[in-house]
Amino acid sequence: MTAPHRIVFANEKGGTGKSTTAVHVAVALAYQGARVAALDLDTRQKTFYRYCENRADTQERRRIALPGPVFDICHGDTVEQLEEEAARIGEGMDYLLFDTPGRDDPFARHVAASADTLVTPMNDSFVDFDLIGQVDAESFKVRKLSFYAELIWEARIKRSRATIEQQKREMDWVVVRNRTGYTDARNQRRIDDALTELSKRVGFRAVQGLSERVVYRELFPSGLTLLDKGHLGELGTSHLVARQELRNLVGNLNLPIPQHPEGEQARTATTKMVEPA
Q1: 8 strand-pairing partners
Q2: Once rounded to an integer, what is the mean pLDDT over residues 165-169?
Q3: Strand 5-9 and strand 142-145: pairing?
Q4: CA 11 to the chain's CA centroid
Q5: What is the DSSP letter of 221?
């Protein structure tokens, strides 16, 4: 059986919209008919897990079926235990998502290095840019890579060797630019130039992400997403624009399309992973 495509959402800085982006991508893939599993590695905040838990509660309360991932939180204490959990929840799935803590974490490093698609959300500011590279204070030219960028660069080199030996797909590193509308034009040009320069050096792709919208925070208690048409009430123009942003983001991730037997229903409702007896 083919292993699920691993999508890892990772950023050592908090407040970048990482978990919100991860949840919406997971639900979007489920709406496309894919089998999706997700493991939340942030055992402190549990934002992804809580969002999906709220979604499951809404399904039960309203007696509706909402496409989404099978989900759980990481319970293991070692990388080996983490991989055992990932194998269990990812069995038979098309995609396996990992949401990682907004801090340096050994599990986050491990899954980032083993990602098929690594997604790093960042706000359009040099505070967040510092995660992947440092710029000169006067010219705003990239001076050097950050520790995190070097870590991913080394992981990609190892992955490239494994790609040749084991016929694996190369890692696709995608930097997702959230909150671009909150950056003034001059500063945004500087960030554009710095990202372009750095992307050529370490090989990531920069794509547009999600703007800062109150609707994302409002949807958290119900676990609903912008894609849940018919369950959100009347939508305004800003909601429709945000939904299109999400669709564009999912398309720009360039994920492999699952191949299912004709007529097979792969779409499943959001479900909490139940430990085997």
Answers
A1: 98, 118
A2: 57
A3: unpaired
A4: 10
A5: G
